[in-house]
Amino acid sequence: MADGKGGMRKRVVILGGGFAGIHAAMGLGRLPLDVTMVDRKNHHTFQPLLYQVALAVLSPAEIAQPIRSILRDYPNTEVLMDEAVGFEIDARRVKLKSGAVLEYDYLVVATGSTHSYFGKDEWSKLAPGLKTLEDATEIRRRVLLAFELAERQMVETGSHPALNFVIIGGGPTGVELAGAISDIAKLYMKKDFRHIDPSMAQVMILEGSPNILAAYPPDLQVKAAEQLAKLGVQVRTGGHVTDIQPGYVMVEDEKIEAVVTLWAAGVQASPLGKLMGLEVDRRGCVLVDEHLNPKGRPEIFICGDLAHFEQDGKQVPGVAQPAMQMGDFVAKRIAKLTAQGLGSDGSGVAKGFRYFDKGDMATIGRKAAVAKIEWPFKAHWSGFPAWVTWLVVHIFFLIGFRNRWSVFRQWAYTYLFFNDGARLITGSQELPGWVEKEGVALPVAGAPLDMGSPKSN
Question: 12 pairs with which residues across the strands?
């Protein structure tokens, strides 16, 4: 297609509809370019709120929006629900799973990351992680089903296994999951069961390093530990998980019983970096220069979790803020390259990417959070002020007015009435570590659990 100046319009292919990909597409959406967005899902997910779907505070539709809806006002942009499976780098072609082949002048790769089980991929079935809506609904199913099975077994046998929930990993995701499970057990479900006491559930974080929230300042690590303790969450640091089996977790030689085990310990980059033959680090992140280009490939841009970009001697973290800023930068970079008629060699456009750190936040539970504020002023907050800040920031960054209003309304309802309306169990009614025997849910042999006591009525 002509660009209006007698030349052919440049074609940009964007792989990945996460924060980086969406921001790049919106930045390029009104330029004289042809843009193709490719993602294997039809929706963009606001990942920072996934844990609230996993713990039934929000429904999936409240934190996700169809990519087509987000980009519908950009007539130069098309959306393909497909997946990249191969590349011809020198010929500038991307092979898709459907068999289609896309040619490009510029390629933006922002396919994110997935869980890393450190070579123990068999653990994934026993300890799901949290990266997608499917992960969130699976975690919700397991957590809620544990209470339902305990209620049923109490009716049938007069006792039930202890409701021990173990989260492996003490980063932001692990802390958020732990606090949310404690909240749902102690606040939101306490009146819903007749034969068990949900508040007796025990939540434990297992962290291999000396402290939780290792990327946060020491004072906020202490505040987070204090707030978790108030919620009844046990935190164990300095021990590494050596095995995960149905009904229990091994830490070194110690056996820790778990009716539900969740994984929040590690991530690895999308495999596309290796598939493209680019230089990657040990996690599979592509090493990029100040323009987010791999070495010798100025027409390719790597963004978000997939990029290994260092600033001031430190790698920029793979979280939402840098991803958004990388997407915005790439859009401006491509706009300058094409406007100046420089083709794809990048000469003459020297300004590089610089991450503007506005701070980090992690919510721990109802009215509990920690926040490291870097802009517009520097501060370390915890407790209720940090929680309110976290709420406002996440509402602001949700894409789409409908999502913002829906989430705010649900949060207000949950906060005022101690009730949440997304506690739906779908799919299988079985848990790892449980078997059905004559209609009674029992622990699997070899995975004994402590027995709970009947609830007093």
Answer: 35, 106
Q: What pLDDT is recorded for position 402?
A: 61
Query: Can 226 be counted among the known catalytic residues?
Result: no
Range of 86's domain?
A: 10-40+82-115+267-339
Instruction: Give the span between the Cα atoms of 382 and 372, in whole angstroms.
Output: 9
Asked, for residue 57, whether it belongs to a domain, the answer is no
Q: Name the domain count of the chain.
A: 2
CA–CA dist 285, 304 (Å, integer): 10
Low-confidence residues in the chain, pLDDT < 70: 1-7, 340-350, 399-402, 411-421, 434-457
Q: Which amino acid is at 44?
A: H
Q: Which long-range contacts (CB under 8 A, 24 or more apart) does 325-328 make?
A: 325/23, 325/353, 325/355, 325/356, 326/20, 326/23, 326/110, 326/292, 326/353, 327/19, 327/20, 327/21, 327/22, 327/23, 327/24, 327/25, 327/27, 327/108, 327/110, 327/303, 328/23, 328/24, 328/27
**160 and 200 assigned to the same domain:** yes
Q: What is the DSSP letter of 47?
A: G
pLDDT at residue number 341: 52
Residue 371: closest CA among 396, 392, 401, 345: 392
Q: Among 339, 372, 403, where does a domain finish?
A: 339
Q: Which of 176, 207, 257, 299 is catalytic?
A: 176
Q: Which residues contact 392 (CB under 8 A, 6 or more apart)?
A: none
Q: pTM for this structure?
A: 0.88
Same domain, 287 and 164: no
Alpha-carbon gap, residue 21 to 38, rounded angstroms: 9
Query: Are residues 31 and 87 both part of a single domain?
Result: yes
Instruction: Quote the pLDDT of residue 423.
Output: 84
**Tokens 């996690």 sit on residue:** 283
- Cα 125 off chain centre by: 18
Residue 259 near residue 146, CB atoms below 8 Å: yes
Looking up residue 102, the CATH number of its domain turns out to be 3.50.50.60
Q: What is the pLDDT of residue 414?
A: 67
pLDDT at 457: 35
